[in-house]
Amino acid sequence: MNPAIPDLAALHALGAAQQPSYPDAAAVDAAVARLRSYPPLVFAGECDRLTDKLAAVTRGEAFLLQGGDCAETFDGVTADNVRNKLRVLLQMAVVLTYAASVPVVKLGRFAGQYAKPRSSDFETRDGVTLPAYRGDAVNGFEFTEAARIPDPQRLVDVYHSSASTLNLVRAFTTGGYADLRQVHAWNTDFVQGSAVGSRYEAVANEIDRALTFMKAIGADPDEFHRVEMHSSHEALVLEYEHAMTRIDSRTDLPYDVSSHFVWIGERTRQLDGAHVELLSKIRNPIGVKLGPTTSADDAIALSEKLNPENTPGRLTFITRMGAGKIRDLLPPLVEKVEAAGLQVAWVSDPMHGNTYEASSGYKTRSLADVTDEVQGFFDVHRSLGTWPGGIHVELTGDDVTECVGGLEDLAEMDLGNRYESVCDPRLNRVQSLELAFLVAEMLRK
Ligand code: PEP
Ligand code: MN
Q1: Which pLDDT band, with edges at 50, 70 and 90, does 188 fall under?
Q2: Cβ 266 under 6 angstroms from ligand 1
Q3: Can you state the angle between helices 326-339 and 296-306, rounded to 10 degrees?
Q4: Distance between CA 273 and CA 337 in Å, rounded?
Q5: Atom 3 of ligand 1 has which residue's CA nearest to it?
Q6: Domains of the chain as residue ranges with CATH
Q7: Surface-to-core class of residue 429, CB atoms within 10 Å of its CB (0-12 exposed, 13-18 middle, 19+ buried)
Q8: pLDDT computed for residue 1 by the predictor
Q9: 8-state DSSP, 305
Q10: Torsion-angle region of residue 26: left (phi > 0), alpha (psi -120 to 50) or beta?
Q11: What is the mean predicted confidence (pLDDT) over 30-42?
């Protein structure tokens, strides 16, 4: 290992929040050793390309669309599930690109999003208290004592599940499915006649006409036939991220080859903590979630530590303030970070500041709040002359009932119909596409 990267024990010694308490140290060592022997899931050069694209976002020349499940599951690694997620992301990207004429950087929150920080270490149901579920990377969702024991073998399973997902994504995005001539096909089996489905059809028709025209004049660039989709997840479990950190033979520099982009969560962004230390050493493009307690000084210190060379594209700040707070809390943050001359891409996570418990007990979010936070994010950046660089959303390509509101008017009463998330509520396909149209309008103004 490169001497610049602390070993795992040294990292843990710095203090690491939200880590599993593994009962068997030898089993952890065995899993880590196994992971270290596996080939990279992504290449350093791909990570660098994403950094270049995020530099364009930082300069105000592109928009980031980052989305996927709150928590992927091993069972969720099926062709249908991955394709549906990809499809909604492709549809959203088309809407944003076409309606706003801005290049869209496509970043899946998938192929590695298996570990979850929790607000409580325990969960109580019907008087029984067990360790909280921390994602399939750590323990089982099933509410039994045995399932909730952290098992390091699961980290090996994360690798294989991520590899399968990424393989399928690469096949879909370069093998014809993402071809722009499929723009209508992505919409079939969509609730035909749904308002948002018809609106999408109108965009698709216009794109079709443009493609036909391009073809007629003899232009058929590669970009029409494939998209570049990158992967991302929260870098949470140190054993996994450390084992997947490798020295790139081309440049002799360390990369976390588990994903193109990794981010530090709101609960693990302590300046002197292990997560910030590890991510300060890798060369991937990285993000940090910034919640409502973030001061401008915190953000500046994080940028100085994580991006000391002030490289555009290296650092993305993902703000998640809540719809009711963003207009007050974001301006001083952006102003001071920008005044310090720091190069960051600003992205809005309109999900995590807007979660509440419905009367039925389901964790939910309303599309109105989500939209309002994005609108607040745009308003603040527009008034400061800075660039609202993108959105980071929890979504799925399926017709789940986890968030309320939207054109289908999903009510709290409906949440039980198809609530499948093992963690936070996701926008369903209709809600996701609706959000894309709303954001496209904000971008156009
Ligand atoms: C998440 O993205 O699922 C998450 C836990 O976010 P945050 O760290 O912003 O709370
Ligand atoms: Mn979440």
Answers
A1: confident
A2: yes
A3: 50
A4: 21
A5: 70
A6: 8-178+226-444 (3.20.20.70)
A7: buried
A8: 45
A9: H
A10: alpha
A11: 98
Residue 132 per-residue DSSP state: P
Q: Is the pLDDT of residue 438 over 60?
A: yes
What span, in angstroms and rounded, lies between the C-alpha atoms of 285 and 263?
9
What's the CA gap between 305 and 302, in Å, rounded?
5
Count of C-beta atoms within a 10 Å radius of residue 17:
14
Per DSSP bridges, beta strands 363-364 and 356-357 are antiparallel
> Which ligand is closest to the CA of 265, given by its number?
1
User: Which ipTM score applies to this complex?
Assistant: 0.99
Q: Helix, strand, or coil here: 233? A: strand
Q: Is 128 exposed, middle or buried (0-12, 13-18, 19+ CB in 10 A)?
A: exposed
Q: How far apart are CA 34 and CA 153, in angstroms?
A: 10
Q: Which ligand is nearest to the CA of 232?
A: 1
Please state, in angstroms and rounded to a whole number, the distance separating the CA atoms of residues 107 and 282.
Answer: 19
The response to whether residue 230 sits with its C-beta less than 6 Å from ligand 1 reads no
Helices (DSSP H) in 340-407: which residue ranges? Answer: 367-384
Residue 148 to residues 1, 22, 74, 143, 144: CA-CA distances in angstroms?
32, 11, 15, 7, 6
352 known ligand binder: yes
- Gap from CA of 107 to ligand 2 centroid (Å): 16
Contact, 239 vs 28, CB < 8 A? yes
CA torsion 109-423-16-272 (nearest 10°) is 60
What length is written for the chain?
445
**pLDDT given for residue 4 in this prediction:** 83
List Cα–Cα distances, 59 to 53, 260, 300, 346, in angstroms.
10, 20, 18, 10
CA distance linking residue 155 with residue 319, whole number of Å:
29
98-156: per-residue pLDDT in tens?
A: 888 899 999 999 999 999 999 999 999 999 999 999 999 999 999 999 999 999 999 99
Does 402 show up as a binding residue in the annotation? no
**Pick from 437, 367, 348: which is nearest to 95 by CA?**
437
DSSP state letters, 211-232: HHHHHHTT---GGGT---EEEE
Protein residue closest via CA to atom 10 of ligand 1: 266
What is the separation of C-alpha 378 from the centre of its chain, rounded to a whole number of angstroms?
A: 19
Q: Structure tokens of 314? A: 């290296």
